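User: what does the whole thing look like in 3D?
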Amino acid sequence: MEAEKFENILMQMSKPKVAHLKHQDMLANAITNAKDKSVLSLWWLSVPLYIIAALLMKTCFMPNTTLASNIHELANKGKYSALFIFIVIPILFIVINAATIRKIYFLSGSPKSASFLKEIWVNVFIILASILILIIYLL
Amino acid sequence: MKLPWFKRNGLFFMPISIIGWLILIVGIGYSVYTFIEINNQGHSVSDILINFVFSLIIIGAIYSSIAYFTSRPWPQKK
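Assistant: Here's the predicted 3D structure for the full assembly of 217 residues, as structure tokens:
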């Protein structure tokens, strides 16, 4: 009798429903932050990319010069500004974007799907562009 | 001086408050001033454009940095 009553109570009990998960908010905020950061990174990375593009044009139009020689000439004119533009900015944005990708990866439950890549492709592109800038400057 | 001052819209941060609009106007004004300065010193159209676009990118990067840090409300104290 008692067991039957208890069974009835259990049947009537419903699972607690959580309409809104805090974790969802955290993931949504992390994705919005990542997009904001990627816009900022793109603006700052466009500075060294623009200089490299201009120096590439100079290399094409001026005979007996190479991209490396033009970059070193520029670096000799302004040592600290070249160091900031070609070393500090790319390294800073590699670290920031890698940390952002890591945060989204853990918040979304370590997924192995294309949808995750779709969310972070801009950040991956920024990291690759930063590495390219570092390689061009250091070679 | 209540935040946020800007809201991101694609690649740009759009102002949503008076201070945000003031910052944008100062940025545009400085870009025009830079163009006039470069135009006075430049020797050719390409020379002027190459230098002006470089200045424009730097102004845009600084504007985006200000907008990024002021595009969210102050963190609430617990």
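In plain terms: Chain B touches chain A at residues 8, 10-13, 50, 53-54, 57-58, 60-61, 64-65, 68, 71 (CB under 8 Å). The beta strands of chain B are 6-9, 12-15.
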